[in-house]
Amino acid sequence: MGSAYSRTSLRTHLHAMIFNQSLPNIFLTLNPADIQSPVALYFAGVKLDLDNVQAKQLMDAYKRAEIIASHPVATAKFFHILISNILHTMILGGVVGPHFICISLFGLIMT
């Protein structure tokens, strides 16, 4: 998000989109926990059987956080795949309803 100017710019963009497209039908906040995800660890190079993940295969929280922090590309890949699948399945795939048509999306990534 950054500076006050960038927040104001994003807010203006969102207000313009609301004025043009009307109020949003869905407001969704996502906070993926990459440290808890076996998929993120798999992308980081940890050898896991994703079809049968056991709690004993996963390391303690500190070790998982260390692995995720040292592999930013794997974390970005995990985030991209997760968000793409959520948007494709829920919004564009029709889980929200058979007559729901997605006209516009507004996404913001906060780091």
Automatic annotation (TrEMBL):
Keywords: Membrane, Transmembrane, Transmembrane helix. Pfam families: Helitron_like_N. InterPro entries: Helitron_helicase-like (IPR025476). The chain crosses the membrane at residues 86-109. Residues 2-98 form the Helitron helicase-like domain. This is Helitron helicase-like domain-containing protein. It comes from Adineta steineri.
